Amino acid sequence: MQMMNEQTGIPFILNGRPVRSLSAPGTRLLEVLRDEFHLTGTKCGCKEGECGACSVLINGRLVTSCLIAVGSIAQQAVLTIEGYRETERFAVLDAAFADMAAVQCGFCTPGMVLATEALLSEHPHPSAEEIRQGLSGNLCRCTGYQALIQAVRTAAQRGAGLW
Amino acid sequence: MMPISQSVIKKDHLAKACGQAMYVADYDTTQMLQGLILRSPHAHAKILSMTYPPLPEGYFTVDYRDVPGINEVHIVKDDTPVYADATVEYIGDPIMMLVGPDERELERLLAQIEVNYELLPAIIDVRDGDTAFFDYHFGKGDMDQAWAEADQIFEECFETGYQEQAYLEPQGLIADYNQGKITVRGSMQCPYYVHGALAKALGLTPDKVRVIQDVTGGGFGGKEDYPSILACQVAVAAYKAKGQPVRVIFGRREDMEFTSKRHPSRCTYKAAVKNGRVTALDADVIFNAGAYTTLSAVVLQRGIIAASGVYDIPALKVHGAAIKTNTVPNGAYRGFGAPQTFFAVEMLMEHIANALDEEPLAFKLRHMVRQGSVTSTGGRYHFPVPLPAMVDEVRKMSDFEQKRQVYARQQTGTTRRGIGISLWFHGAGFTGSGERDIIKAVTRLHKLADGRVEILASQSDIGQGIKTTLCKIVANELNLPLDQVSYDNPDTDRVPDSGPTVASRSLMTVGELLRRAAIRLRSQWQEGVEQTVEEHFKEPDFVIPFYIDKFQGDAYPTYAWGVCAVEVAVDTLTGVNEITGTWASFDVGTPIDLNIVIGQMEGGLLQGLGYASMEQLAADQKGRIRNHSFSDYIIPTAMDVPLMKVQLHVEAYPDGPYGAKGAGELPLVGAAPAYMSALEQALAGPINHIPFSAEDALKLIRQSRRA
Amino acid sequence: MVNSYAPENLSEALRLLQAGKVTPYAGGTDIMVHPRAAASYLFLRQLPELGQISATEQFYVIGSTVTYQDLLTQTKVDLPDVLLQACRKVAAPPIRNLGTLGGNICNASPAGDTLPVLYALDASVRLARFEPASVNVKDTDGSISYRLLPLRQFIQGVRRTCRQPDELLTEILIPKVRYTLTEYEKIAARKAQAISKVSFCGAAAAEAGQLTRLALAFGSVGVTVVRDSQIETAILNGDYDIAAAVKAYDQLLRPITDQRSTAGYRRTVCLNLVRNFLTAVLAQTRSGAQVTDQ
């Protein structure tokens, strides 16, 4: 695969399905997801990679989709909240976030959920410091992070064996 | 703990957690036009002419000439134009909007618009300001006598900076004009504020205006008045578009640079001290209002009412002024004027105590108000003032006295530690008689034949959880399972005006109305029949009427109380400090949901700590706000969060639902002085301004080294 | 319609670069903040030649498209810890998963987080370009020619490097040295996601109680990283004690005031860090501490 444009399209895997984006290769992945594929669970908070609301997983790594040109992820596997919410792991995170009331306005939440998935994949039993590091790219203005940190800890405990 | 306080899973949790919740930017845009605003590049200028380039098919302009009603946005006063006509008053003042299908094309075309200006002198620094939008005076007691008899007189000036709400979801609205009716939906705190503004700007009767709140990603006051302005602008565009919806969603930069912020302040305090007690306070409070009045009157009112803090000062003279500058109009932000004056009065008391060689906490405790004490405005603290108990709780949690002593001793090494404590209140509910005379809240409960109940009110859930807590109140009173009671995002076509989502009033005031409505519904309940009950606000009997012209009476029916201790460690090589612990006790009455209320306390506390330190925003000499992105306006990340321990101290308020009081704003108000007094101990020097940076700390370190 | 490219190997990439106006795109975290509308990108992360981490006897060799996270998680090569410390301080996890060492260098921001470390460790960069064989021959014929430059020569100013438009940065080479003491400091407004106000890297090597190697490099206090070998030599020779060294750096440094910090603060912090580092270095050498890997 060498040349790409709106006609050739950019093939990648989106939430487990092969798709082809017909956006210009320089288009932000965030816009491709929201506008072309109508997946609005991934949010736009800044367009500068600073807030983390646009976080998705690419080949399992946490990235800010606003800083990714869609052409750069050809053939790679993108996972958004829409794909992740079908999983058993999500169920554990969802329950933990709910029990700790870690969702207030909700705008940072899809990004936080995916950041937690990335963190627990690397550290199934994270220390407080590792949790903070893992969430450090996701800004939250509502919670003060306390409930979020507790939610991650709870999820790690309850989800033993899943990660 | 009362049964109702038991935490439940929030009603909107799942939709938000799995990404299904629809925020305004999530709606399909294929049938919509986009709008892009042209803003003044000058702080103050006359608009001489505007030249639009030839526009492709489907693109059109919107400016003041297109406003079908009155070119004024109704907020408190109506001096904010929908679109600037004669003059522009700040960098960012909206002049016109370009509307069309493609955003990139809009950007290209917007750059071609020519506006000719005649520059006018601009006032950027509030000290140069010559126009006071609002000027208030009030006082009590005999100032002259107190001054004459004083042992010592202290005078200090305190400064606080801007604060940007930095809600994660930027502002955005969609407007649609169809068959003579305008509909505006989007991110907002006050649907009926927007409703009133639209009716005026479009010259429409109320039934021809519909406002719908969408799931809103944070507000903190930043979406209290600003959406009214944006709504009028987008609505006028939709009016001209005749049938196609127009959508404006701000990017972060536009939002940060041009929407309302917390008023910067300069407070000059004079204190008379006799026999180790403060006998008089003279407070001169200056708020930088920005270019238009917007909410400055009310913010200033709340700020100056709090001027004497939690202290019983017999003689008081308070002057407050909101000064016009040619900068972005400032508005509401959690705390609404009180964080500014509480910073001043808490640091003042700290400094006086130090000068008198007394421990600041002991000094403060000796001055505290009690139940029955007279307030700054001649009202009363009708209910228990639990500060002494709360102080004890925080002392214990933080090991305050021990640390205070240890850190007072000579410290060696490159790290310096300190611990500080602050005391504050937040007046619960709308200031003065606004609730009774202006808002006149109405709520309804609509019972379906199958027994499900819907709450009809105009409160916006902006993350504070009222979708859940209001339902809990009604469900509890009707003895229904929680999932049988619902509350949808308000739509003015369907719900009465229960007032704005401001002033920490939603749960306390509207929640109580709903509780009473539920009681009435219960007593009238008929199985299998559709029923509606309505409830109107009635001011509690005990309230001493408040007269705004004299600032006399009960400014608030009751108060929420806060005590917070902060411990810091400063690296003397770099001036960078780390908060090693934060402990707080909050009295917001009965928590309607423990997790939700604690979450509010923790979130507000962190915002207050950010206000004191890393959150710096400044207009340059030309009046341009330079930090307009998340990389330049620094809010705390998960790694900056200190050990935080929050406790609730419950003093049930009889006129609040199950004893609940206004909660949302309280935790932010007094965090800054606790943090700064800790730093003062660590750095052995006075702090009179926030935000206080590492640069400031290093300066202080060098000064005390030389001394 | 504008094309972008994802070449399969370095040779293809270099030929494309030479042929037309394409923008090399590694992590993209800087480019995508202000993307140009009709940009033609040359995506690099899939190129096998640029993504390796290896070591020779004398050098650590890091491919230019290796991400910060790759550096932090790989176990193949025992990279200098001080470099990993700097990587850990870059932004936040999403940026560390995307951003590359080569990008940090070619971006040449005065505040680049890894740059003080690379300067202190005497890093070099390898650049490649396509040399066509000759005229009248198939244009795929030819070879890749390389050149090696010390990093301090490669970075010329704010966002300016010696990279020619038809060159790609392929590898970063760091000499293998057993340092006795290394230190990395990043001073910023918060603990994550922050652009540095001041950054510092110190590296010292001693043998039998004698200081043999010394490097002090400062970031965010000049148009490029500041490092002065003359002052370092004077310290090594014993011509400068700590006070004299601090004075020399005081005269050398010309920090500015900008929206992030003040000149006075930057100066004071740098001098404090110098004093602190040199004190630690001399304490170690005086105690004849064993040479250990830092």
In summary, what is this structure?
The complex is a heterotrimer of chains A (163), B (707) and C (294). Chain A has 163 residues and is of the alpha+beta class.
How would you describe this protein?
The complex is a heterotrimer of chains A (163), B (707) and C (294). Chain A is α+β, with helices and mostly antiparallel strands. Chain A has 6 helices and 6 strands. In chain A, helix 3 (88-99) packs across helix 6 (146-158). The longest helix of chain A is centred in the C-terminal third of the chain and has 14 residues, at 109-122. The radius of gyration of chain A is 16 Å and the shape is elongated. Chain B is globular, with a radius of gyration of 26 Å. Chain C is of the alpha+beta class and 294 residues long. Chain C has 2 domains: 48-107 and 122-175, 2-Layer Sandwich (Uridine Diphospho-n-acetylenolpyruvylglucosamine Reductase, domain 3), CATH 3.30.465; 181-286, 2-Layer Sandwich (Enolase-like, domain 1), CATH 3.30.390.50. Chain C has helices at residues 10-19, 68-73, 81-88, 93-98, 101-107, 115-120, 151-154, 229-237, 242-252, 263-286; strands at 4-5, 23-25, 41-43, 53-55, 59-63, 124-132, 142-150, 155-157, 160-161, 167-175, 181-187, 198-207, 210-219. In chain C, the strands form 4 sheets. Chain C has a 5-stranded antiparallel sheet. In chain C, strands 11-12-13 form a 3-stranded antiparallel sheet, with helices on both faces. A two-stranded parallel ribbon of chain C has the order 2-3. Chain C is globular and about 60 Å long. Mean pLDDT of chain C is 94; it is low at 289-294. Chains in contact: A-B, A-C, B-C. Chains A and B meet through helix 3, helix 4, helix 5 and helix 6 of A and helix 1 and helix 15 of B.
